[in-house]
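Subject: Sanity check before I submit

Could someone independently write out the structure tokens for this chain? I want to compare against mine line by line before I put it in a report. The sequence has 192 residues.
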Amino acid sequence: MRGVTSCGSMVQTDCEGMNFKQEQVDELYRTHSRRVFASLVRLLRDFDLAEEAMQEAFTAAIAQWETDGVPANPRTWLVSTGRFKAIDIIRRRKKSREIGPDVARRMQDVCEANDERAATEIEDDQLRLIFTCCHPAIDPTVQVPLTLREVCGLTTEEIAKAFSPPQRQWPSGSCVARQRFETRAFRSSFPV
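---
Independent answer below. Compare away.
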């Protein structure tokens, strides 16, 4: 396709071998769309439905006439196709109304399940962080204090009080462990 231009509600393409048929559809749209629309309004007694059905009929015309050629009476074909398209539209709307409450309920269930899962994933991330803090590559004497700091959010003073050694020993140990995290990409298997 070399280009696409818009002509009303129809699309005109510059594909080779299609110009003649596409030009016919464009011309039919310009000259007959209001008459097709009027016929559909009379048959369907609904302006919006008639407009939608007419658009779908012209879309079908482009697809079908491209391969089968333009029928002898294109306006009649468009009105007939528009009626069938209107029936399809009515069926889709009816089905949508029927299943609407069920779809809404299912969507609500999915949202609730996702909310529950999101809360669980946070806990799983915390569990992963515990395993990361206790990775075998980290000095065992630093693993527990690091876990208390990173997972539980305790301060250095709180950790030092819990273990009763001098306070100045903890910051250096946890800083060394953090540097190891940053310098190494820990890729170990975590329990599922």
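---
OP: Matches mine. For the report I'm noting this point. Residues 74-133 form the longest helix (60 residues).
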